[in-house]
Amino acid sequence: MVLELLSAGLTDREIATALSLSWATARTHVDRIREKLYVHTRTALVAYAILYGVVDKDKVRALWELHQPRLTDREVVYGEYFD
User: Fold this and answer.
1) Fold (topology level) of 2-82
2) Based on the number of CB atoms within 10 Å of its own CB, is 34 exposed (0-12), middle (13-18) or buried (19 or more)?
3) Which end of the chain is less packed: N or C, by CB atoms within 10 Å?
4) How far is residue 24's CA from residue 16's CA, in Å, rounded to a whole number?
5) What is the tens place of the pLDDT at every residue in 20-47?
6) CA angle, corner 41, sides to 35 and 45, nearest 5?
7) How far is 13 from 60, CA to CA, in rounded Å?
8) Residue 61 clears pLDDT 80, i.e. is over it
9) Are 83 and 74 in contact (CB under 8 A)?
10) 69-77: average pLDDT
11) pLDDT digits (tens, 9 = 90+) for 43-60
12) What is the 3-state secondary structure (H, E, C) of the chain?
């Protein structure tokens, strides 16, 4: 589950909250997964997970959409979100 949440773009703190863990524990899980798969960055870890089917792309997409900020039509049309 940690890898799926990471693949959805969540930070260590967001992963910790989602799984009811401490921030340090979530970070340790991410670091240990990186070490076991011999990858150096979080981005490479996500790419590896998707490329080799460790995580389900559809599930990751659904998690990503769930955790993205919602924009109102006004923010999108008038660019208020970027001000």
Assistant:
1) Arc Repressor Mutant, subunit A (1.10.10)
2) middle
3) C
4) 8
5) 999 999 999 999 999 999 999 998 998 8
6) 70
7) 18
8) no
9) no
10) 55
11) 899 888 888 888 888 887
12) CHHHHHHCCCCHHHHHHHHCCCHHHHHHHHHHHHHHHCCCCHHHHHHHHHHCCCCCHHHHHHHHHHHCCCCCHHHHHHCHHHC
- b/e 37-66 (16+ beta carbons within 10 angstroms → b): eebeebeebbebbeeeeebeeeebeebeee
Determine the pLDDT at residue 81.
47
- Residue 23 tokens, joined: 């921030």
Residue in this structure with the two tokens 């389900």, named with its chain if needed: 56
Q: How many residues does the chain have?
A: 83
The two three-digit tokens of residue 51, written as one number: 């490329």
Type of residue found at 30: V
- The residues, any chain, with a CB within 8 Å of residue 50's CB and separated by 6 or more, are 7, 57, 60
- Whether the full predicted model's pTM is greater than 0.85, yes or no, is no
